[in-house]
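Entry: Ferredoxin
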Amino acid sequence: MAFVITSPCVAEKAGECATVCPVDCIVEDREQFFINPDLCIDCGACAAVCPVFAIVEEYELTPAQEPYLEKAEKFFGIST
């Protein structure tokens, strides 16, 4: 499992998550940050520092949040 950055991050981009990530799996795009699900080690450091509570564990995504996982996979070129 990986963490996923959801809608509260769109246009917010505080960036603390990328700073604390021990494996550098968080990348900034124009709209928001994305977590590479293939590289994420599921440590939770990013979620703990997110000021807008945008980071959710993949298995806890609601149906409305699932497009953010798909968006991250597309961003990183990961086929599902």
